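Running this now, will post back.
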Amino acid sequence: MTRHIRIPRRTAVLAAAALLALAGIAPLAQAADRIRIASTPGATSDAIKAAIGDARAQGLDVELVEFTDWTVPNEALNNGDVDLNFFQHQPFLNNAIKERGYKLQFIGYGLLQNIGIYSDRHASLSQVPDKAKVAIASDPVNQGRGLLLLQQAGFIKLRTGNAPGASLADVSDNPRQLRFYEVEGPQLIRSLPDVDLAVLWPSYFAAAGRKAQASQGLLYSGIADRFYAMGFVAQAARANDPKLRKFVEVFQNSGTVRQAISQQFNNDPKLYTLPWLGAQ
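Update: finished.
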């Protein structure tokens, strides 16, 4: 049977095995036909829930385990307490591997949330004045993605070109003399009244009860930055496990999954991409 288990936020990274034991989950060896997938609440976990029925029809018993702490899904996977996780993009995984030494590997795309340039003050990019205030993510992974979008908009040039991982120190040309303010990701939406532009995720508007505003971005990143697509991650030693590959295939071909993702983003194709389409 399928069980959805929500584990509350932890202020520190706890042993994932202990967390799962507290949740009453049996060892993996006792359920060889089951796939346990760790995710975080929101678009990714909702998409997994939508895939459960189609996966069952293909002989896969999927169990979703939700964590609210972004550090724990990789810990649980690395320890072998879950089979897959689905909550992160490749740069986030790369950083986790660098910091923790995890032996994990991306095995398939799941969802690309198209970040946008938003403004409460200006109706178009052409209206943005010189010396405009711009809020951008403070963390290195998402700051680089935001800078690439600002470069795409023609506001800046980066000495690193289109390579991921740029920081404000890599801005080589800023002809409009934009003034940047580094803000923690979850707080970017709150910065909108105080800046000319903010680069943020559409899902933040949905979480704030302002779904309509998510569709009012001045520019979206789109499929061009597939590197930032969230996807399925497995232990490197199981990257070619037929059972895991089969689930990814079921997920990507499920009409129910596509409908759930569309609803999560207010049925607006500007706000998200199905990154596996055309990727093969």
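The mean pLDDT is 87. More later if anyone needs it.
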